[in-house]
Write a structure and sequence with these properties.
The complex is a heterodimer of chains A (307) and B (428). By secondary structure, chain A is α/β, with parallel strands linked by helices. In chain A, 36% of the residues lie in helices and 14% in strands. Chain A has 11 helices and 9 strands. In chain A, the strands form 2 sheets. A 5-stranded parallel beta sheet of chain A has the order 7-6-5-8-9. In chain A, strands 2-1-3-4 form a 4-stranded parallel beta sheet, sandwiched between helices. The longest helix of chain A has 20 residues, at 284-303. With 428 residues, chain B is α/β, with parallel strands linked by helices. Chain B is built from 13 helices and 18 strands. Chain B has helices at residues 78-87, 106-119, 142-148, 163-174, 187-190, 199-204, 212-228, 240-251, 262-266, 288-299, 315-318, 335-344, 350-364; strands at residues 3-13, 18-27, 30-35, 47-50, 55-58, 60-65, 90-95, 123-128, 152-154, 179-182, 195-196, 208-209, 232-234, 256-260, 305-306, 380-390, 409-419, 422-426. In chain B, α4 (163-174) packs across α7 (212-228), α7 runs parallel beside α8 and α8 (240-251) runs parallel beside α10 (288-299). The radius of gyration of chain B is 21 Å and the shape is globular. The chains are: A alpha/beta (307), B alpha/beta (428). At the A-B interface, α4 of A face α6 of B.
């Protein structure tokens, strides 16, 4: 099995069957990470460049571990160690990388559309590891994997996505992904953080967190993105926490077997109370573990497998 | 005596109301006679230009262009810009002051006009800055710039955020009979926006610019126009709400005029869908609703002028991430054909279109010749309305290639441009 695509740029361009295939593949590859020798030869001789133009701990480490567990050779570049600091444009950097003939380029960039621009310029596969406020397809896939693993299905579940929807690529990709797989998605946050026209994605919007939490099977809390914030979105973290944060009190309206998720890094005490983040419903660390499996699956499906 | 006779074309002049097959006799760079074939204009010694089957209009005038000289000659020079203008059918253009150095004093105005004289093509009427250095802090020297040749003042590219400065600019410019052209934008509302705010921006994950960023400033400037009783021209109208505000203000009799650009009545935000930086422009391409409102504004006379807002950028500014790319697109070589589509769609009569691209702009910047009248300089454009062609940016005279219209199939274009009796472009 292989995905007949060069790039993974967003969830929109993945049909439901391909998402299913990626999740199934990730389920089967997950076991490799629990072996004493966590390595298979599948991608031996393949070269993968990790081009991280924006800071990242989780995603970058996860991609690198995934590639290494499949025996690919990896190279890692960050904006601060690249020629970007010498004024080289993204297009030129990428053309140079391409000249070294990598098999895949994993890119994270603060500008929406940067991976699309890159994909047009290179023959290698491009995987979007997060572009601006646009998309974070691997996060959505690992979130869907986590939910499917815990609940046995995605179809019919009620998924609440709460917080700074406007600045969140995770919200966009998850909304599209969960809807595609037959879940119901409800978005919640203060009106200053709800982007114009988001309803066209097919998810209703509420300004009342309680309404979103009510009967939720899954709650995805979003991080207040201090680095992307524009002024005047909310008055204080204190007020934000009390009206839009997830606490043990407002969580009681959710279903008894609710899953609490967060793409990380979390702001403890702001969008999520510490006791909720560390509590029994939290699957935040399962998300991280599944991230490696999802990225292994994507690399395998794009670069490996029988020709 | 050197004479040129343009024979057999359909002459259409919104100023005089002429519309019919006529001959035009040009003598010493001026229009000597206009009459039908039976009239006395028969001179065997004159140079004859056969314009049969073509449309002859007063020279087209583009009152909103950026020529990039001095300072950014790799994008455009006065000469290459004039050549692009001539190829687009324009006999005169106004160039905005956001050069480097800024055209906020007479020496820069002089420099531009000297370059324009050397180019010896179309007429160039510089626009001076409203504020020194376009910084929005203090008035530039309007008196001296006017004496040097500017026809208007504008901080185009930047809004004048300080309402008091805008008020004083309108008042002070009035004293010199200078028009103020306003780039209406509230920078606080634009913030870090890269495209129109709405569904497409949300899908693409790009920060949006709301319509209100334009309309609140249009509203402010209308209030200041009323306060100062000074002429005001609103540049590049793109939003439905702006059209409505201008329509109402005009109904109250204010000295208000407005322009839009072909991209605002030809495209919508959809053009940005693939992160195409050639469609990144300020104000941004908006929705169907806005596009339709702009068309309606043209139709009912709310919008007086079509101007290209020709804004050349090289690949250095455009071959970048969408957020990082410069705003602007080039338009002088596609403006007329795109505008002719409005006639084909039945939105404008040919006469109204020519008025918006020639006689209205001439009157707004107070040129002392308007229309094809005897004694006026022989500035005219000969148009082949039936000529079909495919836009190919690589054939442009402009030094830049940043157009979202590359590959478009268009019909109708200028085939000859005559400035002061001299042929500056001939593609018959």
């Amino acid at each position: 099995m292989k995905i007949e695509k060069k790039d993974i740029l967003d969830i929109e361009s993945l049909p439901a069957e391909e998402i299913e295939l990626i999740l199934d593949t990730a389920d089967s590859l997950k076991e490799i990470s629990t072996r004493p020798i966590k390595k298979v030869p599948t991608l031996r001789g393949k070269t993968i460049v990790h081009f991280f133009h924006e800071s990242s701990t989780r995603t970058r480490t996860s991609f690198e571990i995934a590639a290494k567990r499949l025996s690919a050779d990896t190279v890692s570049i960050s904006a601060s160690t690249s020629s970007i600091v010498k004024g080289e444009t993204l297009a030129d950097t990428v053309r140079n990388l391409e000249a070294m003939n990598p098999d895949a380029i994993i890119i994270r960039h603060s500008a929406a559309g940067a991976p699309h621009m890159l994909a047009r310029l290179v023959r290698s596969s491009v995987i979007n590891a997060g572009d601006g406020m646009h998309a974070h397809p691997t996060q959505a896939l690992l979130d869907m994997m986590t939910v499917r693993e815990k609940k046995g299905r995605l179809h019919g579940l009620r998924v609440a996505i709460i917080g700074d929807i406007a600045h969140s690529r995770v919200a966009r990709s998850n909304t599209v992904g969960f809807l595609k797989m037959g879940a119901h998605v409800i978005l919640a946050g203060p009106p200053t953080m709800i982007p114009q026209g988001i309803e066209v994605l097919g998810a209703p919007v509420t300004y009342y967190v309680e309404e979103a939490i009510k009967n939720a099977d899954v709650i995805i809390m979003l991080r207040i993105q201090k680095e992307r914030q524009q002024p005047f979105l909310f008055p204080s973290e204190r007020e934000y926490a009390s009206y839009y944060g997830l606490t043990t009190e407002n969580l009681s309206a959710a279903r008894d077997d609710v899953l609490i998720m967060h793409p990380g890094p979390i702001n403890r005490g702001v969008e999520i109370a510490p006791e909720v983040a560390d509590g029994p419903y939290s699957v935040i660390l399962d998300q991280v573990a599944n991230g490696v499996a999802i990225r292994m699956a994507l690399l395998y499906l794009l670069l490996g497998g029988p020709r | 005596m050197k004479q040129t006779l343009i024979k057999g074309g359909r002459v259409l002049d919104p100023e005089t109301g002429i519309d019919g097959v006529m001959d035009i006799l040009i003598e010493r760079g001026r229009i000597a006679e206009i009459g039908n074939e039976k009239s006395k204009i028969q001179n065997p010694k004159s140079k004859i230009i056969d314009a049969s089957g073509k449309l002859i209009t007063p020279g087209l005038i583009d009152i909103h262009t950026h020529l990039r000289e001095p300072g950014h000659e790799y994008k455009e020079t006065v000469e290459s810009g004039c050549l692009a203008a001539a190829h687009g059918g324009f006999t005169a253009i106004c160039c905005m002051p956001n050069t480097e150095p800024v055209n906020d004093n007479q020496s820069v105005t002089d420099y531009i006009l000297r370059k324009a004289n050397m180019a010896a093509g179309v007429r160039v009427y510089p626009v001076g800055a409203i504020s020194r250095g376009l910084r929005g802090e203090s008035l530039a020297e309007y008196g001296e710039m006017k004496a040097a040749g500017v026809v208007a003042v504008s901080d185009d590219g930047n809004p004048v955020m300080n309402a008091q400065l805008m008020r004083r600019a309108l008042e002070y410019a009035k004293g010199f009979g200078l028009l103020v052209i306003s780039h209406c934008e509230d920078r606080n509302l634009t913030a870090n926006g890269a495209m129109n705010e709405g569904v497409t921006a949300t899908r693409l994950g790009l920060a949006g610019i709301p319509n209100a960023a334009e309309t609140v400033m249009v509203a402010r400037d209308i209030a200041l126009c009323e306060l100062t009783d000074a002429p005001l021209h609103i540049a590049h109208v793109s939003a439905e709400g702006s059209v409505r505000l201008i329509r109402d203000a005009k109904a109250r009799g204010l000295q208000l005029t407005a322009e839009t650009a072909p991209h605002y009545f030809s495209l919508t935000e959809e053009a940005v869908m693939s992160y195409d930086t050639n469609a990144k422009v300020h104000p941004p391409l908006r929705t169907d609703r806005d596009r339709d409102a702009v068309r309606q504004g043209l139709r009912d006379g709310t919008i007086d002028v079509i101007a290209s807002d020709h804004a050349p950028h090289s690949s250095v500014e455009k071959d970048l991430e969408f957020d990082a790319a410069a705003n602007g697109l080039i338009g002088m070589e596609t403006s007329l054909p795109l505008s002719l589509k409005l006639v084909e769609m039945g939105l404008l009569s040919l006469k109204d279109l020519i008025a918006k691209m020639s006689t209205n702009p001439a009157r707004i910047v107070k040129l002392n010749y308007v229309g094809l009248k005897r004694g006026n300089p022989a500035d005219l454009t000969i148009i082949d309305l039936e000529k079909k062609f495919t836009v190919d940016a690589n054939t442009f005279c402009s030094k830049s290639r940043n157009t979202p219209f590359n590959g478009w199939e268009l019909k109708g274009k200028a085939v000859m441009t005559v400035v002061g009796g001299k042929i500056v472009f001939d593609d018959r």
